[in-house]
Q: What sequence folds into this?
């Protein structure tokens, strides 16, 4: 078991130097847990394989992590099934599950700086952004813990001779496959409702950012979660991820990631046991700016943050900026000015807005899209080049293309990097057409002071969520998910609890 990085006497890190001290302690004093967590024990992968996780901001190796395969998946699924069938968690009262999950949230809060640091080191995101993720992850666990003992069943409207009941029951074994861009927050979005509903959960973190998930496993044990109810299998999608998806004893797959992988997982579900599959996949989100906005400086700041936050490695990034042509030139200038204030910096510097791209492959992918944008005839207004911080790292500055048309790759395909594609429009009808002209439908933004226009356009946008005069200002009370090729699942809110349970109808004939 790793030693806690934080104690009540540990000062709260506030500066770059503070975070660097904590990072050195974390990485040099053998505090990192790198083994799989199976059936309440940390173990090496069955085949003994490992993979290297690297800090993309420095190129330094962080750890060699267990690389699980089909044998590990089989062991974890068997343990999860035993735990579920035992009823120790699945049949525990909602109030009992609530108490354990609230304890977990308390432990996460006590260790939030360590957890944030792990995500920052692992995938290159600014540590202040990681701290925001921790607040979201902790809030998610608390929300579902507090919700589960407040959800009621139903009594059907019958005659006196019958009684019809509708009850919710846990699904069984849930495999959660989460991405690398928001490692612990996405984990919380998946496991919070699944555990609250009484399921056993097997988590497969991304091989690009596995460390916070393994630390979380230690905290779940400390919180008192029953043996086998939560397990972590680090490794690759084509090995352990595929094995979980094809397992005949996994009842549900919950996935956040690319649309291509989401399609594969649906195929694996069909090839195996028709397990439920909930997907939150890619996006190419439109951010629509009408000329009647009052404070264009504020709107431009939000439009820039919508794409450059987390280095653009965000599924709902506002990567398509649609601006009414009467204000387009002036507004793009304001976005460029805002982007200039969002340059990459050391991820451990609390003042850095952007960090590093997650790895060399993603770094090169983004640069390739930038080259394609130039080749296709878009006007490069800012950025477009690889940069370094202190002579190290995989950084790309905020990049803005103007004059983008809907036939260009940078305007249609998900780049997952800090690349903004600017379109112009003249009419409301044209704005709606451009916004909906996408394979994706995860999020959309709409900026206007005209309430009639807001209601008209909001109803016509084909998107799982629409942000009006904001970008992503939402909390745990509303569901998160998309339509079209952005997937079909919903995270957060009571609606996610519904996904991790089955309805059972009971019909009683009464003697009258």
A:
């Amino acid at each position: 078991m790793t030693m806690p990085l934080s104690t009540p006497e540990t000062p709260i890190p506030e500066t770059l130097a503070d975070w660097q001290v904590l990072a050195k302690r974390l990485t040099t004093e053998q505090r990192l847990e790198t083994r799989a967590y199976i059936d309440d024990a940390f173990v090496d992968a069955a085949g003994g394989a490992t993979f290297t996780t690297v800090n993309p901001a420095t190129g330094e190796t962080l750890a060699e992590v267990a690389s699980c395969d089909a044998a590990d998946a089989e062991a974890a699924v068997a343990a999860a099934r035993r735990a579920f069938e035992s009823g120790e968690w699945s049949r525990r009262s909602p109030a009992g599950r609530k108490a354990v999950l609230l304890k977990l949230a308390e432990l996460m809060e006590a260790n939030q700086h360590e957890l944030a640091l792990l995500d920052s080191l692992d995938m290159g995101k600014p540590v202040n952004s990681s701290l925001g993720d921790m607040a979201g992850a902790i809030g998610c666990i608390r929300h579902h813990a507090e919700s589960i003992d407040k959800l009621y069943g139903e009594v059907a409207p019958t005659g006196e001779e019958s009684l019809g009941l509708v009850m919710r029951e846990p699904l069984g074994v849930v495999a959660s496959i989460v991405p690398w861009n928001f490692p612990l927050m996405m984990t919380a979005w998946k496991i919070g409702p699944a555990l609250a509903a009484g399921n056993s959960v097997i988590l497969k973190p991304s091989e690009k950012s596995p460390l916070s998930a393994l630390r979380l496993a230690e905290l779940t044990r400390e919180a008192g979660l029953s043996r086998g109810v939560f397990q972590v299998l680090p490794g690759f999608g084509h090995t352990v991820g595929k094995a979980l998806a094809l397992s005949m004893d996994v009842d549900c797959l919950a996935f956040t990631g690319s649309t291509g992988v989401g399609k594969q997982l649906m195929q694996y579900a069909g090839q195996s046991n028709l397990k439920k599959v909930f997907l939150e996949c890619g996006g190419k989100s439109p951010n629509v700016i009408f000329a009647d906005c009052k404070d264009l400086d504020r709107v431009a700041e939000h439009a820039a943050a919508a794409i450059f936050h987390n280095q653009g490695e965000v599924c709902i990034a506002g990567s398509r900026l649609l601006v009414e042509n009467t204000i387009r030139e002036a507004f793009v200038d304001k976005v460029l000015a805002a982007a200039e204030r969002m340059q990459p910096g050391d991820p451990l510097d609390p003042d850095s807005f952007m960090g590093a791209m997650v790895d060399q492959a993603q770094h090169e992918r983004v640069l390739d899209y930038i080259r394609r944008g130039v080749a296709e005839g878009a006007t490069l207004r800012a950025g477009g080049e690889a940069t370094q911080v202190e002579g190290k790292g995989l950084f790309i500055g905020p990049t803005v293309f103007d004059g983008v048309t809907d036939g260009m790759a940078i305007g249609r395909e998900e780049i997952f990097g800090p690349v903004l594609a600017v379109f112009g429009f003249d009419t409301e009808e044209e704005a709606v057409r451009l916004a909906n002209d996408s394979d994706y439908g995860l999020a959309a933004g709409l900026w206007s002071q005209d309430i009639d226009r807001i209601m008209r356009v909001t109803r016509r946008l084909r998107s799982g969520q629409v942000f009006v005069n904001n970008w992503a200002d939402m909390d745990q009370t509303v569901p998160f998910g998309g339509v079209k090729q952005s997937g079909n699942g919903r995270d957060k809110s009571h609606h996610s609890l519904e996904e991790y349970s089955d309805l059972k109808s009971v019909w009683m004939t009464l003697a009258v």
Notes: The chain has two domains: 16-281, 286-474. The chain is about 40% helix and 20% strand.
